[in-house]
Amino acid sequence: MALTKRILGIYGGLLAAEAICVSAFAIEIHRALSGNSLSWAYVFEWPIFAGYAVYLARKLIREVRFGPRPSASATPEDSDARLAEYNEYLRKMHDDDNSDRGDS
After folding, report:
1. Cα–Cα distances in angstroms (integers) from residue 94 to residues 66, 70, 86, 88, in the given order
2. How far apart (Å, rounded) are the C-alpha atoms in residues 10 and 49?
3. What pLDDT, on a 0 to 100 scale, did the predictor assign at position 78?
4. N or C, which end of the chain has less CB nearby within 10 Å?
5. Where do the H-state alpha helices sit in the chain?
6. Please, are residues 23 and 15 in contact by the beta-carbon 8 Å criterion?
7. Would you kindly state where each structural domain of the chain is located, as residue ranges?
8. What is the pLDDT of residues 7-53, one digit of tens each?
9. Relative orientation angle of helices 39-66 and 2-33, to the nearest 10 degrees
10. Rounded distance, CA 100 to CA 104, Å?
11. What pTM value is reported for the model?
12. Is-contact 53 21, C-beta < 8 A?
C-alpha cells in the first residue's frame, strides 16, 4: 500500500510538472509570435524541462519498485579489501615513523 501511495505521488508530481511546462510553453509561444524575441529561448526550454520531468519520474518509480541500483564501480568486497590494504599501509608508515625516532 505504501508503495502504491509513493508511486501515485510521483505520478501526481509528474502531472503537475507537465501541466506547468505545457502552459508555460503555450504562453511563451504566444509571446514569441507576438514579437518578443527573448521568448524564443523559452519556447525551446520548456519542452526540455518536460522531458526531464518524465525522465526523473521514471527513475524514481524504478527506484521505488526495484530499489536503488548498486554502484558498478566498487563492490563491498572490493572496498573492504582496499580498506584493509590501506589500513595496513598506514600501520607500516606509523611503525616506520616510530622506529626512526627510536620510540619503539
Report:
1. 45, 35, 12, 10
2. 16
3. 66
4. N
5. 2-33, 39-66, 76-101
6. no
7. 2-69, 73-104
8. 999 999 999 999 999 999 999 999 999 999 999 999 999 999 999 99
9. 170
10. 9
11. 0.62
12. yes
